[in-house]
Amino acid sequence: MPETNSDTSAAEQSTIDMEAWVCPAPLRDAPNVLMGHGGGGAMSAELIEHLFLPAYGSAADAQMGDSAVLQVGAERLAFSTDSYVVKPLFFPGGSIGDLAVNGTVNDLAMAGAQPVALSTAFILEEGTPLTELARVAHAVGTAAVAAGVKLVTGDTKVVDSGHGDGVYINTAGIGLVDRRADIRPQRARPGDVVIVSGDIGVHGVAVMSCRDGLEFATTVASDSAPLHGLVAAMIDTGADIHTLRDPTRGGVGATLNEIARAAGVGISLDERSLPIPGEVRDACGLLGLDPLYVANEGKLIAFVAPEDAAAVLAAMHSHPFGGRATVIGGCVTEHPGMVVARTALGGTRVVDLPVGEQLPRIC
């Protein structure tokens, strides 16, 4: 039985039956939180399914997605929250500041919503230079202006020196869902075409490139960008877009697995069609990483009916953030809940949900 906190009251302990958890390894075998629990892979899913949801009880929405769609009067509101702990705070092409804005804006966009307002909460480590904090705050403001979203409320807390990494940020956002849109993972269905909006693996490699001891021959800049304009252009085609997701933690591989399991469909990828830049492929080869599991912050994956694919692709190609959009596979009736890739050699391999995370602290 996992150890209980000595501060937990006897009454609380009596209501927490940890032996009743139905949980595969590694959650049951790890009595403490591990880095992999925040990686967006299997460990994150187990933590939500076997700890948070049972603890929340009837208060929880079972879907617990990146964003929720709420009916408020005649309008549908998208609501999302995310926390950013990226290390280092500044990296090629971006910083924790613009990442915090764009990440939450994109979670709203994946529900077909135009962002309206964000909150910003800062957790600061004592001793952090104010000049550094000012750079982060400026990046937040600049990104919000670029995305056309207001920063309407916030909070600031300070922790003791040595108990943080300078700056952590939480952003929550609300947006108005387009009345023409019904976009959710459960709507993916056999026959759907799977489209990615551009090169993958860029953000994760950009963050890793400026960590101690790592040097690459070329500079890889983060792809962090707000995607609600791209999504609006896709919806304007009149296509019935079934599913949208931004493949952040866990990359394309984890995101496709989550959709396959939510919709009960199989997904077949063509590895030769995956848009992986040479510098990303080289860096992943050097580090022993699979680009499919490397995080992105300015890309989306779309599932659309085959008759709509050409129109959606054309709209994406006409937008600055979708110029390299390409079809990477489709939904199939075979192997429901699984993602399988056809290799360049003509074989197949299973693209499974990662257990932990390849690259810690990338968002």
UniProtKB/TrEMBL annotation:
Residues 189-331 form the PurM-like C-terminal domain. Its EC number is 4.2.1.-. GO terms for biological process: protein maturation. Pfam families: AIRS, AIRS_C. Keywords: Lyase. Residues 65-177 form the PurM-like N-terminal domain. GO terms for molecular function: lyase activity. Gene3D superfamilies: PurM-like C-terminal domain, PurM-like, N-terminal domain. It is an enzyme of class 4 (lyase). Coiled coil: none annotated. It comes from the Bacteria. Belongs to the HypE family. This is Carbamoyl dehydratase HypE. It comes from Mycolicibacterium vanbaalenii (Mycobacterium vanbaalenii).
